[in-house]
Amino acid sequence: MQQIANQLPGVLEQVNVDIAGGLKEALNNGINKQVTKLTAVDGFYKNEMVKILLPEELQKVDAGLRKIGLGKLADDGLRAINRTAEDAVKQATPIFVDAIKGMTFTDAKNILMGNESAATTYLQSSTSTALYAKFNPVIKNSFAKVGADKVWANIITKYNAIPLVKKVNPDLTDYTTNKAMEGVFKMISVEEKNIRTDLNSRTSDLLKKVFALQDNK
Fold first, then answer.
1. What Pfam families does UniProt report for this protein, alphabetically (predicted)?
2. What would the pLDDT profile of 72-129 be if each residue is shown by its tens digit?
3. Rounded distance, CA 161 to CA 130, Å?
4. Which burial class, exposed, middle or buried, applies to 129 when counting CB atoms under 10 A from its CB (0-12, 13-18, 19+)?
5. If phi over 0 gives left and psi between -120 and 50 gives alpha, with beta otherwise, what is residue 24?
6. What CA dihedral angle connects 42, 45, 46 and 47, to 10 degrees?
7. How far apart are CA 138 and CA 54, in angstroms?
8. 3-state DSSP assignment of residue 51
9. For 141, how many CA atoms within 13 A lie in the half-sphere containing its CB?
10. 197-205 own/partner pairs: CB under 8 Å, 24+ apart
């Protein structure tokens, strides 16, 4: 009995190590598998889960342009916003890697036994400030790089020239930054849910071992 008692701390420590390792592997899988998709051309624009739509203030701009036969210009503006998000998300991976490295045993156990989006919530709380600081200047630069600034300057100018409309001047950089972050976390949550609920998504022995503990909670 004493021998078992002596071994118990080591067994529990190994369980903690396994849980932390399994959670880190699961989060890395989510980043590599899902977030990477967003960095491709049309990663946002043709993904209905995360496609960035126009803010409310600009929905009337879109409708106004289409009424006067400028539907293509409206489409170009929407595509340009999504292009800047695709460019910015390339900056996300190092920030997520740092957050995953900083995960404690307690964090890992709470995540494992938490709800189906507990890991995504952990990343969101531990990276949002850094992501915004990284994404915002990239998106600002991307607006220029992909030509979105000129497209939207043209759109706003044409819309504001329509008689009797209320003139607009939205902060598209801030809006797109927040929407890009929403899209990133939405895709990570997809992979987290897969690993938690689909046995076939547990692609390593460690993932199978660790998430079996969750299954039995």
1. DUF4197
2. 877 888 888 899 899 888 888 888 888 888 888 888 888 888 888 898 999 999 999 9
3. 39
4. exposed
5. alpha
6. 110
7. 19
8. coil
9. 8
10. 197/116, 203/29, 204/25
Q: Is the dihedral angle over the CA atoms 135, 48, 54, 86 positive or is it negative?
A: positive
Cα-Cα-Cα-Cα torsion 71, 187, 97, 144, nearest 10 degrees, comes to 0
Q: How far is CA 142 from CA 21, 84, 87, 177, in A?
A: 36, 5, 7, 11
pTM of the model: 0.79
End-to-end CA distance of the chain: 27
Task: Return d(Cα 169, Cα 60) in angstroms, integer.
Answer: 13
Task: Give the pLDDT confidence of 175-185 residue by residue, as tens digits.
Answer: 889 999 999 99
Q: What is the amino acid identity at position 197?
A: T
Q: Tell me: the pLDDT tens digits for 24-83?
A: 888 888 888 888 899 999 999 999 999 998 887 778 777 877 888 878 877 888 888 899
Per-residue pLDDT at 170: 67
